[in-house]
């Protein structure tokens, strides 16, 4: 069982936060901004669920593990996974702000401001 735990704790999981405006520039005119934002949100939600399952599994494994070295590795995995969940929630919050801003721009296109004399 110790080898499996080591394999889990040493496995590399890649999550990244992406600046929406920078990544959208590379997509070109064929992809709508709304679809891109909503697809990105779905990916973030999937990643959050995955990391939450990993954290829950690491917590359960931590409580049943008796070996001190294995327990330390599992605790490291657990802490790492919880940090990733927090980072993903932060990214989701920023993305939700982008979606709100995009929807406001879509609802009020070409609004003209007049100067008062």
TrEMBL record:
Gene Ontology biological-process annotations: signal transduction
Record-annotated REM-1 domain positions: 39-102
Domain of life: Eukaryota
Protein name: Serine/threonine-protein kinase N2-like
Lineage: Eukaryota, Metazoa, Chordata, Craniata, Vertebrata
InterPro entries xref list: HR1_rho-bd (IPR011072), HR1_rpt_sf (IPR036274)
Pfam families (alphabetical): HR1
């Amino acid at each position: 069982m110790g080898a499996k735990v080591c394999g889990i704790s040493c496995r590399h999981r890649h999550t990244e936060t992406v600046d929406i405006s920078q990544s959208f520039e590379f997509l070109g005119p064929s992809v709508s901004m709304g679809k891109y934002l909503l697809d990105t949100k779905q990916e973030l939600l999937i990643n959050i669920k995955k990391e939450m399952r990993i954290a829950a599994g690491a917590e359960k494994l931590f409580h049943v593990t008796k070996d001190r070295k294995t327990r330390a590795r599992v605790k490291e995995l657990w802490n790492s996974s919880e940090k990733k969940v927090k980072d993903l929630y932060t990214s989701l919050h920023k993305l939700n702000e982008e979606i709100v801003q995009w929807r406001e721009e879509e609802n009020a296109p070409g609004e003209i401001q007049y100067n008062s004399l």
